[in-house]
Amino acid sequence: MENYIASQRDQIFRNVEVLIYVFDVESREFDRDIHYYQSCLDALIQHSKDARVFCLVHKMDLVPENQREQIFFDREQDLKRRSHPLKTVSFGTSIWDETLYKAWSAIVTSLIPNVQVLETNLNAFCQHCDADEVILFERTTFLVISHATRRNLGDIHRFEKVSNIIKQFKLSCSKSQAQFQTMEVCTPKFSAFLQGLTSNTYVMVIVSDPTICKYNQTTRY
User: Where are the domains of the chain?
Assistant: First the structure.
């Protein structure tokens, strides 16, 4: 890494929009990690001073549960102090729960221009469809870009679960040499409809109205 920072500094750090730096919360070489991190920040200040900086404090599952909140808070404050004058956003993450998915979704959302306009239109679409919830996914990763919710659906981990289900279904389609295009799930309690919206996004509409059985009934809105 030292070689990249020293010899290829101009090429790597010029015109950077985002830096995502991953820290191992149990690293035994924290001083070295910070040295590399601050070297990256120095290069950003020189070549891409408007870049956004995100830090993932990873492997939080290895920290005792009753200590996680405090340890993450301490690390977050330390990174903010060391990152000045650049502003940072930190996330505590683990591969064993929803935190990593939520962090990447938040990062993707932050990169979207005019995201407030998108959210306003998504809320209007949700209202017109009389939907319980509308979710906008990035097409390749199925990270959540934005969502509009009109009723409490209870499960705070539902986005990650839905994303994993869709990705597994897409994988099954590819194994059978079928192309994934859309998905429809109808149950006595709800219906969910997934369809491509743009070349880069999918939209999912969830409704609990039992009379709504076809997504195309809502597309006129």
Answer: 1-96, 115-219
What whole-number distance in Å separates Cα of residue 144 and Cα of residue 50? 25
CATH number for the domain whose boundaries are 1-96: 3.40.50.300
10-residue mean pLDDT series, the chain (221 residues): 75 91 94 93 92 96 95 96 94 92 90 88 92 94 93 85 91 89 87 92 89 53 44
**Please, are residues 142 and 167 in contact by the beta-carbon 8 Å criterion?**
yes
Residue of 82, 91, 209 whose CA lies nearest to 150: 209
The amino acid at 33: D
Measured CA to CA, the distance from residue 142 to residue 200 in angstroms comes to 10
Give the tokens for residue 144: 């959540």
CATH of 115-219, one of 3.30.450.190, 3.30.160.620, 3.40.50.2300, 1.10.287.950: 3.30.450.190
DSSP string, 128-186: HHT-SEEEEEETTT--EEEEEESS----TTHHHHHHHHHHHHHHHHHHTT----EEEEE
At a CB cut-off of 8 Å and minimum separation 6, what does 172 contact? none
Q: How many CB atoms lie within 10 A of CB 19?
A: 19
Q: ∠ at Cα 57 (7, 21), nearest 5°?
A: 20
The C-alpha atoms of residue 125 and residue 136 are separated, in whole angstroms, by 11
State whether the Cα torsion 174-178-180-183 is positive or negative: negative
